Amino acid sequence: xxxxxxxxxxxxxxxxxxxxxxxxxxxxxHLAITTGVAEAMGLSYKVIPVAPRGLRRIFAxxxxxxxxxxxxxxxSPFRPPWPDFVFAAGRTTIPYxxxxxxxxxxxxxxxxxxxxxxxxxxxxxxxxxxxxxxxxENVINTVTAPHSFSEDKLSALAASQPPQIAALKRPRIAVxxxxxxxxxxxxxxxxxxxERLLASAARLGAxxxxxxxxxxxxxxxxRAEAAIATAPHVISRSSxxxxxxxxxxxxxxxxxxxxxxxxxxxAAATGKPIHIFHPSGGKAxxxxxxxxxxxxxxxxxxxxxxxxxxxxxxxxxxxxxxVAAEILRRWEDNKARMAAK
Length: 341
Prior knowledge:
The chain is α/β, with parallel strands linked by helices.
């Protein structure tokens, strides 16, 4: 994958003439956070992949950068002219961000997304989700993670529905399924509960847009598919076209498993009601997240069965625009402080 393939240029109406590097560990979730904020800021950006090996990978974020990739080295992708911003997410990206932070001190504003684990001096600014409880003078927090599903993007997706989605009758329920984790088990009993819940929605005349993840147990997915087999439905599978963005834009109601804060957070960008299904298990930080999202009016706990499809509205939760505005404010403050020295 060539770096140039990942260059992004905003439209002339949003570009502010500012540039960013995004240091990427290749994880889609991390890239969604960083690119979502960069696009909300109107930045031109380049995604630069990194893949430390051996001990440097094992001991990240504490390990140093290899000599060949040190900022300013002849073979390094991190060479002047320095960009206005550098973003990084994920522990293996932090050594590079930290090295640039000191090599380009005062010229580049560095932002670490998620807890860098090695202290606040790693970057000029750190974003962390509120449920992680990381706090500090240079830390900003939001309930949901930033992502690229802006209101404009969702409107554009809604206006260009694939025919199989456009043919679905309303109400349309987007069913977003995660999978087992350190916090949630997804037991056979959970699968049976989820099947009953979906079957009750099907009896109410709903149509369905369903997608799982790499973590979704096949037995759990099979039960979910069986529950909606006789109802109008579209299933997005890993081997086919990714319909997930269209599901977000086209749904009237969401049913989301509690294990994935990203799925819940992206659904909350729509302003549409979200029912949360809780598999067996749970941890305190997930409880904090779901309590905070519920307090915003976005979510409610799913019932045992649907007797009606409860609907409500709330202000769409757009963390990317909130974080983008705060980064720009802090960047301006930092420039003013540097100029005064």
